[in-house]
Write a structure and sequence with these properties.
single chain, 366 residues, alpha/beta, 8-stranded parallel β-barrel, 12 helices, binds ligand G3I
């Protein structure tokens, strides 16, 4: 008797669970697709890690994105090996996925002060390389990596984050690239990449470009590079913004500034933190909560972003979100470990948030 009751309860619970899951799947299947919505204007992409390409995430990724960026696995600390041969697993899993499903792949990133092993800048005895030796290593590394991904990667972030955030200095002077080579490493990187693969599109990629001072530094740097015939195709405006300080006017000015130089614009790492950028601690007695007011505010700001992007669609070729859902966003562990953030259009269960709807509804509003 007890046994029968138990099995009846188990049957009920599993039926209810099945119905709930089915409703969730149905909801997902009925929402508009991000890439289908924006395809006439620009690519919609996402940053992902190979281990996230599983049965749960794959249908959502394919439904909403047509372009991928490796969040970490194509950076020098993942690929570089002192023997010069390169370490391509797990990046090749991402490549296989992109090929199987006909997705575009952005290459991220070749020359960066961060996520590059210290040994990249030293010889076998641990002595710092001089300029010519570092250029030789740059060339060998780029050749190895760019040849490996040649048939699938359509563009590369050749140089990442070379500009200083504040102060008088234009460049990030503490970067080993700058210390060893001076600013000349930028021109050299673009020339080298172009020589290796004249068909791939080459980008300079950075954050903070809505800040007028950093934008001015970027414009000055790009003008100088273009005057020296650097083969730059475009600029990646990363787009790590927040709901408190994002300004649609500044975004417009930044797009104008780069487009006036004749460069393509991509938004390469879009997310919208709900935290104030300078605020690492919760105010006394408060929790990090994602209230419906905050969600609504985030939706308004996402709409502002996409209204500017749609209005400038002829100058923008791609918009990439930095993470597949709030579950996997780097914002959850930076700048403060284990502080939850809610920066993406999908929540931790892949449900679309208000921001998702405000994004799709921003097309076309004019
Ligand atoms: O430390 C966390 C750990 O606490 C957490 O539980 C775990 C979850 O997976 O991640 C841990 O490790 C981090 C790792 O990536 C995760 O893959 C590392 O601490 C961290 O250094 C590393 O962070 C990456 C970061 O670049 C490093 O510079 C982020 O995932 C990645 O999103 C981020 O991407 C950069 C772009 O390449 C360039 N622009 C800025 C952007 C955001 O920082």
């Amino acid at each position: 008797m007890l046994k029968k009751l138990f099995s009846t309860i188990v049957l009920w619970v599993s039926s209810l669970l099945f119905l709930a899951m089915d409703a969730h799947t149905q909801e997902q299947a009925n929402i508009p697709s991000l890439w289908e919505t924006f395809t006439p204007m620009f690519d919609i992409g996402v940053a992902v890690e190979p281990h996230l390409l599983n049965d749960e995430n794959t249908p959502h990724i394919l439904r909403h994105y047509r372009s991928l960026t490796a969040e970490n696995c194509m950076k020098p600390n993942a690929l570089y090996r002192p023997d010069g041969r390169g370490h391509f697993e797990p990046a090749d899993r991402l490549v296989a996925f992109a090929k199987e499903h006909g997705l575009r792949l952005r290459g991220h990133t070749l020359v960066w002060h961060n996520q590059t092993p210290a040994g990249f800048f030293t010889d076998e005895a641990g002595n710092q390389l001089d300029k010519e030796a570092l250029y030789a290593r740059m060339e060998a590394y780029m050749t190895c990596v760019m040849e490996h991904f040649r048939d699938v990667v359509y563009c590369w972030d050749v140089v990442n984050e070379a500009l200083a955030d504040g102060g008088e200095e234009t460049y990030r002077v503490e970067s080993p690239w700058y210390k060893i080579c001076g600013k000349e490493f930028l021109l050299r990187a673009f020339q080298t990449a172009h020589r290796i693969d004249p068909d791939v599109r080459l980008y300079y990629n950075d954050y903070g470009l809505l800040n007028p001072d950093k934008r001015a530094k970027a414009v000055a740097m790009l003008k100088e590079l273009l005057a020296a015939d650097a083969p730059i195709f475009g600029v990646g405006i990363q787009g790590h913004w927040d709901i408190h300080t994002f300004s649609p006017q500044e975004l417009q000015k930044t797009i104008d500034a780069f487009a006036e130089l004749g460069l393509d614009v991509q938004i390469t790492e879009l997310d919208m933190s709900v935290h104030h950028p300078g605020n690492r601690e919760a105010p006394d007695g408060e929790k990090w909560e994602y209230t419906s007011e905050i969600e609504a505010r985030q939706a308004e700001v996402y709409a502002q972003v996409f209204e500017v992007l749609c209005r400038n669609a002829d100058r923008i070729s791609s918009v990439t979100f930095w993470g597949i859902s709030d579950q996997y966003s780097w914002r959850n562990y930076f700048p403060k470990k284990n502080r939850p953030d809610y920066a993406l259009p999908f929540d931790r269960n892949w449900s679309p948030k208000k921001g998702f709807y405000s994004i799709v509804e921003s097309f076309p509003k004019f």
